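Quick log. Single chain, no ligands specified.
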Amino acid sequence: MDELDFMSQTMSILALLIISSFAYIWSKKMNFPYTVLLVIIGLILVPISHIPLFSFIDDFKLTPDILFFVFLPVLLFEAAYNINYRHMLANWRTISSLAIFGLLISTWFIWWVLYLIFPYIWLEIPFLVCLLFWSLISATDPVAVLSIFKSLWAPRRLTILFEWESLFNDGTAVALFLVILWVILEWWVVTSTTYIEWTWKFLSMLFGWIIFWWTIWFLFSKTIGYIKNNEEAEIVITMLLAHITFVSAELISEHFEFLPISWVIATVIASMVIWNYGRYKISPRVEIHMQKFWEFFAFVSNSVVFILMGLILSSIEIDFTQFLVPLVLTIFIVVIARIISVYIPITIINKFKLEEHIPNTWSILLSWGSLRWALALMMVLMIPWIWDAWYDKLMEFQKIVWWTYDFSIKDFLLVLTIWSIMFTLLIKAPTTSYIMKKLHLDKLHKLEEFEHKEGKILANLKIIEKLNSTYKKAYLTKIEYDDLIWKYTKRLNESIILMKNLLKGKPEEAKSLIRRAISLHALWIEKQYLKDLFFYNEIDEHNFKYIFRKIEKQMERVEHDDSQLRKISKKWNDYDIFTRFFVGLYKNKSTDLDAYIRNRARVIITRKVIKELKLLWEIDFWFDKDIFNEVISLYASFNKAADEKRINIFSNHKATINAIESRLVNKSLLKLEEKVVKDLYNKEIITPKLYIKFMEDIEKEMVMDVKTFV
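-> predicted structure:
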């Protein structure tokens, strides 16, 4: 690449990013799906690029390698980053039935119907080509739909089902696509063992990620453990992990043909490892930055990929008119196949009550909301083209099956795939939000409505308090103060009326709703203060994870309108067995020292919860405050029980506990020292050089584990 080409491609990518940024702003104002708008803009840019002044716009090309190695790892990693494995375990029957059973139904339907119908429109398409098309078009993309789900507050379980089904679908579809492509390219060398090899490759790609899972878990945990409290380095490690996992899986598959690994599944699992395991090692203050970083990274990747989609469409030199009938039939068949592949598994799940009932409105949205995009495009681009190493084998296959058309197999599949993608982007995506509203899936449930009203009351009270303080300091004139105080007092009164209306009706139902909201608030406080203890190394990782998981399980029980404390039951479900297994592991590893540290942490965080709930008690929310007293009493009992256990352990291990307590007190003093140093630096009393020196000294003592010297 010469300097001029490099400059024009640089200008092209910069121009595309600028255009996509403005497109994002326009999409918000027009309430139109951002990704769809980018594709439309990409189509418009083609004639503009023919003007000499703007000829550089289409110089940056979306090649298979760029899509494959640069953008796809980011999109897969970000899509799986916030996935909680417990949500998957709670819905594994529905997810697996949609991703496996539903996929097989879709396979048979698309392949069989297309193979039967094409001859009637004068297209003799080999069954393997029909099967190849099915495998690549079955890869669903959750990006566009999930952005709509989030903006319209879709039910969380529906989002979980869609997200997990899409990710498992993608891994299975890619594995099947590659196996079928191998079959096509090696058709004339089939032997008796070939079928076994193909089956092994398919299974290896589906389950080879287990090797990666253990490897990633070990390497990532060790690396993050060494660089703890270095925010920039931690974020870079996660970025490298996404791409290294993807590339490594591809290299292993290429050089060790007996053990192919799905790079899709490997990357998804890597992301899940970070979120479900690695986040305990990531510094708490990095978590927010990490989330924002991946959202930004995915935004840039989506912006470039989707806008280039429009440019690719216009650059294909194929007469689409001759494909009009096959295109319409194909799109119709794909839509029908999706509906069948969703309704049959969900009907079985509901009929036999295998999991929590799935409403019919959810089935409608799952059927319609399946979009095809980056992965399907990438797979069709992987089919060999002129100058590719395997192109001759593809041509040989075309001769064997008597392919006599003017267009190649790749051209044919490219047209079908792109127009299936265009249908989902231009028709399905824009109408998904409309369907959600029609089905009333965008409505907040009772608990969310309560929290929304509670938040408005708190916000307006804080604003009124601030206005009074500002007016007393003479920062506002009497006229300005009167206008603003009237405005926010009116809003406060409106919020109070809405709260009263929400709690009207059945007193017991209202009481249960309030109790759930307060309990969730208390658990959220627990979680935040526990993270603070972990950040300052007042609790080690082993015990932090033990308490943190318990808090999360309690939050899930409260959200499902169940008791905060687990009820002992003889009937174990799959989720209970998994949970009890890990609790058993922790109990086996735990010592009296661990028990002391855990109970000390519980004493601290329950005390913090009680303090903050008492502050909330003083605010008049216009409902019975006895519920606040109930929750405060519950946490007082937690605090007392934890303190009694702590004192009991202390009496049996006084020397050891005294050594630990002295270090814990020192850590508390280090927190105070850190605060003082930051204050001195902000006031410019100490120089940046001294500030760095102070913070390095504090950090050396802070990162020491409380049990290190025992």
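The mean pLDDT is 79.
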